[in-house]
Write a structure and sequence with these properties.
Helices cover 39% and strands 24% of the residues. The protein has three helices and five strands, in the order E-E-E-H-E-H-E-H. The strands form two sheets. It has a three-stranded parallel sheet with strand order 1-4-5, with helices on both faces. Helix 2 links the parallel strand 4 and strand 5. The mean pLDDT is 87.
C-alpha cells in the first residue's frame, strides 16, 4: 500500500502577522510555519492505515520554495516513510502547473 499525502504549510495561528506592501502576500519577517491541521490529520490517518495493513509507505508531498522542507521534515518526524518537494517559487501558484507536477510525481511514484 502506498499513500500520498499532500501537505500545505500555513503560518502558526498564535503569531501576529501582517499584509506585505504588495497587498497580496503576508509579511514574511518573523513568520513561523506549521503543517495545516487538516493535512496533519490526513497524514495521521495514512500512517494508521499503513500500520493496520502491516506494510506500505506514506509519502509526504510539499509544494513550494525551500522553506517547505521544514514542513516535510516534520512529516518525516511524525512517521512518513519519505518526503518529496515539488519546487515552485512563484506565488500564487498556477493551478494547472501544480496539478501537472503532482500528477507526474504520483505517476513516477
Amino acid at each position: 500500500m502506498k499513500i500520498a499525502v499532500c501537505l500545505k504549510r500555513v503560518p502558526e495561528m498564535e503569531l501576529r502577522f501582517s499584509i506585505a506592501a504588495d497587498r497580496k502576500t503576508l509579511e514574511q519577517s518573523g513568520l513561523k510555519y506549521e503543517i495545516s491541521d487538516f493535512d496533519g490529520y490526513a497524514l495521521e490517518v495514512g500512517l494508521q492505515l499503513v500500520e493496520r495493513a502491516g506494510a506500505g509507505e506514506v509519502v509526504a508531498i510539499g509544494l513550494g520554495p525551500d522553506g517547505v522542507q521544514e514542513t516535510l521534515r516534520k512529516a518525516l518526524a511524525m512517521g512518513a516513510t519519505r518526503a518529496v518537494q515539488l519546487k515552485a517559487d512563484e506565488v500564487p501558484f498556477d493551478g494547472f502547473a501544480v496539478a501537472t507536477a503532482l500528477a507526474a510525481e504520483l505517476k513516477d511514484g
